[in-house]
Design brief:
The protein has about 300 residues and is mainly beta. The two termini are about 30 Å apart. It contains no helices and 29 strands. Strands 18, 19, 20, 21 and 22 form a 5-stranded antiparallel sheet that branches. Strands 1-29-28-27 form a 4-stranded antiparallel sheet, with no helix packed on it. A 4-stranded antiparallel sheet has the order 2-3-4-5, with no helix packed on it. The chain has a single domain, classed as TolB, C-terminal domain (Neuraminidase), CATH 2.120.10.30. This is SMP-30/gluconolactonase/LRE family protein.
């Protein structure tokens, strides 16, 4: 396995990396409320400043960036790590934003209450081949209570938002199988990787398992918590893992293929770039770094 190379430092809890054709990576800095481009040489440029808590990020069919904004966290620093700590005192509400990467213009596409949906802390996002997108709502933690949330499907033109899966236990990472027929979601505190059978755009089989639509696929032992995920070209689900940190690579059959260790307890995201999609970009959020490495398999080419 190749070694990690640090390409950017000093970021404020980076997540949601999107590899761009020019070799740069656009990501969010949650604690700074901004979207940042990291150039191939490690220099940075501010793309947009939506405020709140920009979290998951994906490129849409219109060339715009779609951002899950969780509304903001409070933060603590401990042992050299920056860590989210409950709902922000100035929490601005959960929302989905559309961002023009050329101008930095930010548009609120969906907000809490639209289409009768509650958006507490939108977290991660993936587009399907039809141009719609799935996203998770991780919810918010407050003293002695935690939101019960779900998994949503929305259209990119702002015309439809639906909570398709409810309840879901603190869902975080989300992704689709290469054929688009399986939706994967990682739960943070339960540390479960769940699978859902997609039967139509924005629809899952409600009777797939004895407990409803979700089929538990994998759950590791040890002091681990799941964050965001990416899917590689072989269909493996690569889940960023907090605590005993690294990337848990899980086969579609629910077997651990490998565990790639990383040097940050808050390892949160992975994506792939480069012409051959063998370059993995990994966010080391607690220490504010973006890393890259040569991955043993290419990543799955995204729909947009």
């Amino acid at each position: 396995m190749a070694e990690l190379e640090i390409i950017a430092e000093g970021l404020r809890f980076p997540e949601g990396p999107v590899a761009m054709p020019d070799g740069s990576v656009i990501l969010v800095e949650i604690a700074a409320g901004r979207i940042t481009r990291v150039m191939a040489d490690g220099s940075t440029q501010v793309v947009a400043e939506p405020g709140g808590g920009p979290n998951g990020l994906a490129m849409g069919p219109d060339g715009k960036l779609y951002c899950c904004n969780n509304g903001g966290f409070n933060w603590v620093e401990n042992m050299g790590h920056l860590m989210p700590h409950g709902q922000a005192d100035d929490y601005s509400g959960g929302r989905i934003e559309r961002i023009d990467p050329a101008t930095g213009a930010v548009e609120t596409l969906y907000k809490d209450g639209d289409f009768g949906c509650a958006l507490r802390g939108p977290n991660d996002i993936v587009f399907d081949a039809h141009g719609g997108f799935w996203f998770t709502d991780h919810g918010k933690n407050r003293p002695r209570e935690r939101d019960i949330t779900g998994i949503f499907y929305a259209k990119a033109d702002g015309s439809h938002l639906e909570e398709v899966i409810f309840p879901s236990e603190n869902p975080n990472g989300i992704g689709l199988s290469p054929d688009g027929k399986t939706l994967y979601a990682a739960e943070t505190y339960t540390c479960r990787l769940m699978a859902f059978n997609v039967i139509a755009p924005g629809k899952v089989d409600d009777m797939a398992g004895p407990g409803g639509p979700g089929i538990p696929l994998y759950r590791p032992a040890g002091y681990k918590f799941f964050d965001s995920l990416g899917v590689d070209s072989a269909g493996n689900i690569c889940v960023a893992t907090i605590g005993e940190s690294g990337i848990s690579v899980v086969s579609p059959a629910g077997e651990l293929v490998e565990f790639v260790a990383t040097p940050d307890i808050f390892t949160t995201n992975i994506c792939w770039g480069g012409e051959d999609l063998y370059t993995a970009y990994i966010t080391l959020s607690g220490t504010g770094r973006l890393a890259r490495m040569r991955w043993p398999r290419p990543g799955l080419k995204l729909n947009f």
